[in-house]
UniProtKB/TrEMBL annotation, chains A, B:
Protein name as it appears in the record: Prephenate dehydrogenase
Single GO molecular function: NAD+ binding
InterPro entries: 6-PGluconate_DH-like_C_sf, NAD(P)-bd_dom_sf, PDH_C, PDH_N, Preph/Arog_dehydrog, Prephen_DH
A single BP term in Gene Ontology: tyrosine biosynthetic process
Lineage: Bacteria, Pseudomonadati, Bacteroidota, Flavobacteriia, Flavobacteriales
Residue ranges of domain Prephenate/arogenate dehydrogenase in the record: 1-282
Organism: Mesonia phycicola
Amino acid sequence: MKIAVVGIGLIGGSMALDIKTAFENVEVIGVDKNEKNAKKAKDLNLIDAIGELKDLQNADVVIVSVPVDVSIKVLSEVLDHVGENTLVLDTGSTKEKICESVKNHTKRRNYLAAHPIAGTEFSGPEAAIQDLYRGKTMIVCEVEKTAFKLQEIAFEIFQKLGMRIRYMDPHSHDKHIAYVSHLSHISAFMLGKTVLEKEKNEKDIFDLAGSGFASTVRLAKSSPAMWSPIFQQNKENVLETLTEYIQNLNEFKNLIEQDNFKKLYEEMENTNHIKNVLNGIN
Amino acid sequence: MKIAVVGIGLIGGSMALDIKTAFENVEVIGVDKNEKNAKKAKDLNLIDAIGELKDLQNADVVIVSVPVDVSIKVLSEVLDHVGENTLVLDTGSTKEKICESVKNHTKRRNYLAAHPIAGTEFSGPEAAIQDLYRGKTMIVCEVEKTAFKLQEIAFEIFQKLGMRIRYMDPHSHDKHIAYVSHLSHISAFMLGKTVLEKEKNEKDIFDLAGSGFASTVRLAKSSPAMWSPIFQQNKENVLETLTEYIQNLNEFKNLIEQDNFKKLYEEMENTNHIKNVLNGIN
């Protein structure tokens, strides 16, 4: 099987690693406009060779794993270059604008819109790890628009990587993912900012930080090149979640100001229910 | 060595476990107004016997690990009951009001104000674990007000538990800890609330949640009985951090509304610096 990965970082690189393990006779070509990244990916054995868009003609599967603003530009080009039987999938954290960008492409049926709910706060080829996808969810959008035979190839890959599949329309995907993914990143980034600003004046503050702070702020290490375009493409939904989050924080602040600690207790007790829904996520 | 733990939960229970391992001939008495908790602690072998305040007379060390509102009431009572050579330490996440509560007590020199920067989001005796304190920081306040011989006992325990010690005044402690601990809890609780509220209307939203969300919202599982009194006692500092946090969130929101994604990128890039300060925290 001939795989091409366009954008060799954490997501594409980890997927290449797992496909190499799960299938026999896999050859992986890496396409990356950042030459350093491509070379690093080669050195790390994530890919077997460095290629260009014109090499996609003979690929069985092309994985497009670039920031979502780049996806919108590059996905059509990729489809222009691939063969009649090549499966193209993207892995972006937004789906509506990306699906929109190729909806009239003559090779639309070669494309599968996908979003793996997996990752770490790190990025680049050196962040790629084995088994990143095991036990995780792959969201697939507009499955009916992909050629049946190519769906089969995609699902065999996802299954061998240990993923469960959920089908959604792109609009619902972007709405829901704003709550359970995009908002967490903003919450962490601004927590990091608030504490860093304080640190400027008060030295040694981080000596007092424990595992709770580290966990809550972890996503503030994430790549701006990946996240800025996500917030842009999912602007409307992200603003909705952010408005609700700020409103809840203001209400919590009011309760403290009014010394209403009985209500504050209840608020936290109600939210403890998150225990049940987090079971099974790690 | 005779140890008494007043309030047998995650913090006191874990400390009892480690002291038993680190020292020979340790006997641990548990004092808890919740009989179920005390019995559970006995069943779990965190303590050797269930006792009462009057039994503290003969203890070498008393660890007061109760919610901070209870500390303020019970710490003076504990000091009333202990012997001349008993070390009493508390483990509360606020220090100014607790130190204030015993400043005129005739046995003030028996007391050491401490705060271990360690814990998990779980609570109760069943949450107690071995080695919770290894490699963690113990903040000690007003060390000069504790009898020298009792300081020595405390530092021997902390050292054997694998902790490093940092000295602070209670006022600075409460101010700094609001940033690196108390604010993270509010941020997580309100993130949990925002997403749970959405879930009421939109089923299955949590199927889409990944490890990033789980990490950011983890502290929302924390005990309201522990955290409501902390927010109350550290009201002023917590309100300050919360005001700054909400302001930063509003500014981030404005940048998205104004399509200023260049500045948004820079904001995130600046905050990526958190990577460096988080090194060594796990």
